[in-house]
Amino acid sequence: MAKYIFVTGGVVSSLGKGIASASIGLLLKSRGLKVTLQKLDPYINVDPGTMSPYQHGEVYVTEDGAETDLDLGHYERFTGQTMTKDNNVTAGRIYYSVIEKERRGDYLGGTVQVVPHITDEIKRAVKKVGEREGVDVVIVEVGGTVGDIEGLPFLEAIRQLRNEVGRGNALNVHLTLVPYIRAADELKTKPTQHSVGKLREIGLAADILLCRTEKPFTESVRQKIAQFCNVAPEAVIQALDVKDVYEVPLMFSAQHLDDTILRFLELRRPAHDLAAWRAQVVERALHPKRRVTVAVVGKYIQLQDAYKSIYEALRHGGLANDAAVDVKRVDSEQIEKEGAAAVLDGVHGLLIPGGFGHRGIEGKLEAIRRARETRTPFLGICLGMQCAVIEIARDLCKLSGANSTEFDPKTPHPVIALLEEQQGVTAKGGTMRLGASACQVAKGTHAHHAYQRAEIAERHRHRYEVNNRYLDRLTRAGLVVSGTYALPRKAGGGTLVEIIELSDHPWFVAGQFHPEFRSRPLEPHPLFRAFVEACLNKAAGKGAPKAARRSPRVRSAKR
Ligand code: GLN
Questions:
Q1: Are residues 440 and 484 in the same domain?
Q2: Distance from C-alpha of 389 to C-alpha of 466, rounded to nearest angstrom
Q3: How many domains does the chain have?
Q4: 50: CA distance to ligand 1 center in Å?
Q5: What is the separation of C-alpha 410 from the centre of its chain, rounded to a whole number of angstroms?
Q6: pLDDT single digits (tens) 497-552
Q7: Is residue 559 pLDDT above 50, yes or no?
Q8: How confident is the model at residue 553 (pLDDT cuts 50, 70, 90)?
Q9: Per-position DSSP letters for 392-410, written without gaps between them
Q10: How much is the average pLDDT of 202-218?
Q11: Domain match, 189 and 315 both
């Protein structure tokens, strides 16, 4: 039977519960345990797929095509475990299934209530992950902050579950803030005491406290927290600010957090092995040999979390090249106002991430044109690839007004058009082309050079695709189709364009998928690794790495 670690947060939000949970995951994995993680989100949306990045940050897409919370990205990056739709559960999804059951008549005769029906459903969702083959420990992170009204059913479900599994099989980790008050020159423990008191009100004890603090605390502060919050002194862990998030697991292990957890869970395991993490991730991140600047041109650049996995994958690409990647975040509308030359001066690479809607598109097109003309490395992701195709159609194929039907339904040249399977789809939630699908990579291309494989799988989240009717014209102008997806026969056969490149450019590669979701610090994604390498070459004034020069044949899909 799996054991459970419940991670809650108190005092304020944004303390980094996701990173803390992921770090615990890595620590336990390093002790030879099979871990998985789950995020419980108390909001009513069934999944975050319909939320704006302003509300929620990035939507992380899993292999099995679930649109999930960005914390699942941390889980995958830190632990290397593959998350599924069951690893993120929202209140909306819980209510949805309870209401479906009610309509079906499953509770016939009864009154359906938060307790026990909603709480039972939550417990079922948590146990479902725990029952997975070989899982030793499930780390369950509860979104929001203790005291939130909407979080109550989740905390009540946890309370019940703890009782059911009994001592030694479940553990509560509570993340709090110990603020430093400058005027008094003191660290204050009262908010932590209040937060633990709040947990106690609903019948939950904190076993381990992770205290976010900007200053290391003295032994007396630790003792005070331990005494007032009723935890063992060694269970009061300082979560100090670190230079790099990948240091967090090392900081925790230096305070023997993993030993303390194992003791609570009555588990004996060999000492941990974090050598690779330390040497290949943390040391490299802290002491890069080179630096390079990459512009990320998007719509939500003010927001730290909107392109989380992109920024992380760029960092991984840097790690693979012993380099730091300085990201210049650029609002595409700024390019529309000031011009690409002024805004992108001095950058060594351009990345256009995924996105939706027409706002800011012209700025992205201008940025791509500049990267093409100045032979600056370019990586386009999903919408970024669609923009590259539009730019090439307009500028190299002279198809004036070329566009995606998403941005201009009446365009004379719909070089990007709705996927066949999307015709007639009107509901917005979970209806895109989602999740991993196979892609054939053509030999002799930059993509093949990066992946070193003829078949890959990548995750998707889109409704539009390259219109194969324009492929001949595009390839004659120098576009190389280096990755394709073979449509099943029942879908009419043919292929979808998945990766494009430019023949006459040092490194211009774009994919219809999201490679950033598969990048890990210990296994940087091949495209990000190759992109950063190309950017370093650009910075050093070197030309193109050797790769493909010719467009492989692509059979046109029936449309
Ligand atoms: N809006 C585009 C589409 O739906 C691109 C989506 C994306 O970048 N994720 O096809």
A1: yes
A2: 8
A3: 2
A4: 13
A5: 34
A6: 999 999 999 999 999 999 999 999 999 999 999 999 999 999 998 766 555 444 55
A7: no
A8: low
A9: HHHHTS--TT-EETTT-TT
A10: 94
A11: no
Atom of ligand 1 nearest to the CA of 432: 4
What was the pLDDT predicted at 558?
46
Q: Which residues of 287-296 are buried (b: 16+ CB within 10 A; e: fewer)?
A: ebeeebbbbb
The reply to whether ligand 1 has any atom less than 6 angstroms from the CB of 459 is: no
pTM exceeds 0.90: yes
Domain containing residue 510: 288-539
CB of 462 closer than 6 A to ligand 1? yes
In a domain, 556, yes or no: no
The answer as to whether 557 is a domain residue is: no
Residues 296 and 272 occupy one common structural domain: no
Residue with tokens 């990045």: 53
CATH number of the domain within which 162 lies = 3.40.50.300
Distance 320 CA to ligand 1 centre (A): 28
pLDDT at 543: 66
Q: What is the mean pLDDT of residues 6-20?
A: 92
Same domain, yes or no: 376 and 496:
yes
Listed in order, strand segments (DSSP E) in 333-432 are 349-352, 378-381, 403-404, 414-418
374 and 485 together in one domain = yes
d(CA 490, CA 488): 5
| pLDDT tens-digit map of 357-406 | 999 999 999 999 999 999 999 999 999 999 999 999 999 999 999 999 99
Give the tokens for residue 196: 């633990």
Residues 313 and 267 grouped into a single domain: no
356 Cα nearest atom in ligand 1: 1
C-beta pairs of 103-109 under 8 Å, 24+ apart in sequence: none
Active site residues: 382, 514, 516
* Buried/exposed code over 504-514 (b: 16+ C-beta within 10 A; e: otherwise): ebbbbbbbbbb
